[in-house]
Amino acid sequence: MSSGWKSVIFTALMAAVVSGAVTWTSAVWIMRERQPANLHAIVHQKLDLTAQQDHALDAIEARFATRRPALEAEVRKANRELAAAIAASKGDTPEVQAAVDHFHVAMGDLQKATIAHVFEMRAVLTPAQARIFDEAVVDALSQDAG
Question: What is the full DSSP assignment across 5-24?
């Protein structure tokens, strides 16, 4: 094999490895940093909840706590599939793209479930409490974007 082709293959493999590493790192960061725990702290510490609201929010949080591990496990599974596809490929193959697509679907499902959970929590709040809650959500999302 000529030196030129070796360079091309090496570059493609390195790009695939770096892409996989960035994807994995992003997933880990998103799962750790975008947890609704900060919103839960705001709800329970900064809002003057009634006993009824507190009870309703506890039930909402418990339901999501049982659902979230399966969603996170699917993200980890998709990451493993991506790693295996990259390891087995010599570039950007259909298998790598399928693994990337699976990862995006898994992350999307986790994000959609988290957003639905946030809105379910919000529905329990009074309009004044919801304004404070909304500001916290907007602040958290704005900080992530910066």
Answer: HHHHHHHHHHHHHHHHHHHH
